[in-house]
Write a sequence for this structure.
């Protein structure tokens, strides 16, 4: 098997067929390929659509059906586990990412033996200015706080060689943040710009709240920098209070000024109390992840797996 496409699907009933057709048309009989569809607990008719597709093209399609919605990260992980190709592409089902571009990625890897991964990044974004600005800020922060570097605008849309897929699968952590994992495993990645198409049908499952949660997950998963903030803020505050103490002592001894300090005290208590609570919260987030990871829960639960019909068995 030369090429696998891993496609996580959540409520994509109107897209999966069009997506597969686009793949078929793009690839033709240029190479052997399979499409691994992961139904991530869709609430619509996606699973039946996928089964119908499998009936029609059993030699090209594998299906994984999750017991509930586990999120795109889990979907990608499950799909990568089942993918058999020498080249593996992670791609969305909604046609925002074109299969033809994925094919170009494979062609690129065929020619450039020293490159292990071709990843797409969005140079021009067709989205809300505010969200785009938040994303930019997120990449700035994470680049500053993490030892690994993130390419701004890089998506999960990428094609990897098998060696890199093995490395990604070796990271079996529960809280998955693939953008970080892809960077962390290393390998030579070549970035190509692309502009996401409009979603063919259905709507994006990313709300602003979900995006914030995802960004937070990314930071917590790949750096312990937020914990260090406590040390830095604590040191700065201690220094500040020492200086202020000196000022007060000099004012009292040299000039005999009494300092009415009720408001100052209240403000300071609230400020310091607030900062302490924030830091406790951050420590809590890390502990919560240790707790969940400690339970060794699986990343996903698949209730069904429909294998590809290999030509030999027919
Ligand atoms: N997706 C998924 N599980 C989820 C949310 C999304 O498998 O819980 C899939 C979705 O079906 C699509 C891909 O992840 O194939 C990207 O999702 P979406 O198009 O909603 O994100 P966007 O393109 O807006 O970033
Ligand atoms: Mg999309």
């Amino acid at each position: 098997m030369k090429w696998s496409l891993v496609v996580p699907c959540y409520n994509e009933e109107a897209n999966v067929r069009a997506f597969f057709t686009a793949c078929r048309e793009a690839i033709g009989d240029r190479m052997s390929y399979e499409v691994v569809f992961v139904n991530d607990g869709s609430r619509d008719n996606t699973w039946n659509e996928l089964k119908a597709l499998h009936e029609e093209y059993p030699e090209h399609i594998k299906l994984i059906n999750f017991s509930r919605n586990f999120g795109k990260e889990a979907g990608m992980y499950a799909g990568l586990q089942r993918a058999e190709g020498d080249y593996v592409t992670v791609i969305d089902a909604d046609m925002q990412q074109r299969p033809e571009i994925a094919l170009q990625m494979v062609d690129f890897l065929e020619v450039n033996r020293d490159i292990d991964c071709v990843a797409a990044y969005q140079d021009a974004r067709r989205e809300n200015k505010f969200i785009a600005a938040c994303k930019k800020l997120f990449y700035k922060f994470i680049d500053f706080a993490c030892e690994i570097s993130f390419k701004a605008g890089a998506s999960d849309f990428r094609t990897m060689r098998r060696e890199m897929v093995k490395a990604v699968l070796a990271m079996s952590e529960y809280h998955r943040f693939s953008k970080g994992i892809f960077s962390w495993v290393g390998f030579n990645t070549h970035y190509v710009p692309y502009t996401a198409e409009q979603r063919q049908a259905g709507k994006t499952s990313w709300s602003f709240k979900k995006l914030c949660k995802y960004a937070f997950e990314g930071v917590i998963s790949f750096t312990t920098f937020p914990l260090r903030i406590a040390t830095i803020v604590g040191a700065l505050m201690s220094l500040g209070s020492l200086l202020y103490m000196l000022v007060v002592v000099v004012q009292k001894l040299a000039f005999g000024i009494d300092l009415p300090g009720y408001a100052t005290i209240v403000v300071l208590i609230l400020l310091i109390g607030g900062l302490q609570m924030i830091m406790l919260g951050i420590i809590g987030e890390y502990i919560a992840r240790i707790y969940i990871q400690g339970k060794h829960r699986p990343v996903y639960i698949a209730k069904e797996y429909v294998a590809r019909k290999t030509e030999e068995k027919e």
